[in-house]
Design a protein that fits this description.
By secondary structure, this protein is mostly helical. It has 16 helices and no strands. The protein is globular.
Length: 368
């Protein structure tokens, strides 16, 4: 790296050493010296947005876990509380998401995601067992006021450090601030959770007309569509843009410098290498790492969302189409990106549960 490595971020040697390793690891992703690695890094950042949004969305559901595990105990701290107790639930639910996301940051989603997936599939009440339809709907409810604020928190805590990390150095951002931006991006779960906690403590939970902490169905659907729609728009836009850039380099090679043509090929940007070979720089090695991390990590998240959707589909309609679901998941991954496919699967589940519930509720009112 051309800048002097900053050796003191916190004053705590083990932590500073870890942060130094992360700065060295991501420096050539952010400095533009390896165009292919930088593009893959941008793609990875954009596809992570839906995963982060869904993780925080899932953490504020109104379900109660059953068991003695940490995650079910955390999930039992829900919105059914008042004043100080409600504030405590916000802390614990936020910490649950923060711990998992920090694990993904430090150990990579592709290598640590399976731990999270096994834990969720085993203990989360909306991905384990065969819950009753009405129980599943109630467990899937979220506090709508808090749900719609996840996007601003992710923008401030995740997107802003990502943008700062990518600014040219030293023309716009000098070496030390750029390293600090890389560190901030690596600890984004703490930033996002801190922002959410500060916002949530001033916002009372959404309550129904009967006084219970349950949102109305129209508000629930509105929050679901707002949250999922914006996350999908972000990841899909970057996927389409990078695909367009890649195919343009094949169709119109005269528009690009010769040294960029190899880096922009679809196989360079989207296919992980099958043969392990030595590299001359850290940036070349990080490229391979990011491609494999995306493949393994997003596949793991898809398994969890697949199971959530399968249970919701069987509870709502009494059936589940393996081929239809696989076709939608594969097609959306190819045309919109893997992160987009994940959030689309979550959106599909929410619509299936709550639209049918809204229709049932309106029909019951009509007959009464």
């Amino acid at each position: 790296m051309t800048s002097t490595l900053k050796r003191n971020f916190t004053g705590i040697f083990p932590l500073d050493y870890l942060l130094d390793v992360l700065v060295i690891f991501f420096w050539e992703v952010a400095d533009g010296s390896h165009p292919c690695t930088t593009i893959i890094g941008v793609y990875f950042l954009a596809q992570m947005v839906p995963i982060i949004v869904w993780t925080y969305f899932n953490s504020i559901r109104a379900h109660r876990g059953v068991g003695n595990s940490l995650i079910t105990w955390v999930e039992s701290c829900t919105l059914h509380c008042h004043d100080f107790q409600c504030e405590q639930s916000v802390v614990w639910c936020s910490n649950s998401s923060t711990l998992w996301l920090m694990l993904f940051q430090l150990c990579a989603l592709g290598s640590s995601g399976f731990i999270w997936a096994l834990w969720i599939l085993q203990y989360s009440p909306i991905t384990s067992g065969t819950p009753d339809l009405q129980a599943l709907r109630r467990m899937s409810l979220v506090d709508t006021r808090k749900a719609v604020l996840i996007i601003p928190a992710v923008v401030i805590g995740y997107v802003v450090p990502s943008v700062l990390m990518g600014l040219p150095s030293p023309t716009i951002l000098s070496g030390d601030p750029k390293q600090i931006a890389i560190v901030l991006w690596n600890v984004y779960p703490c930033l996002v959770s801190g922002i959410l906690f500060m916002i949530y403590r001033f916002i009372p939970p959404t309550r129904s007309s009967a006084g219970s902490p349950m949102p109305s169905l129209p508000k629930q659907l509105c929050a679901v569509r707002w949250l999922h729609g914006l996350a999908l728009l972000c990841s899909a836009a970057f996927h389409i843009g990078i695909c367009f850039l890649s195919f343009a380099s094949i169709l119109f090679p005269a528009l690009f410098k010769d040294r960029f043509l190899g880096d922009l090929k679809p196989e360079s940007l989207f296919l992980p290498p099958l043969v392990i070979s030595g590299t001359s720089t850290v940036g070349d090695g990080v490229r391979s790492f990011l491609l494999w991390d995306q493949l393994c990590g997003y596949s793991t998240v898809m398994v969890v969302l697949w199971e959530q959707y399968r249970i919701a589909s069987q509870a709502s309609t009494g059936r589940f189409s393996f081929m239809q679901t696989a076709f939608v998941l594969l097609g959306s991954s190819v045309f919109l990106g893997p992160g987009s496919a994940c959030i689309l699967m979550s959106w599909w589940r929410e619509e299936l549960l709550f639209q049918s519930w809204e229709h049932t509720t309106e029909t019951s009112k009509y007959h009464l």
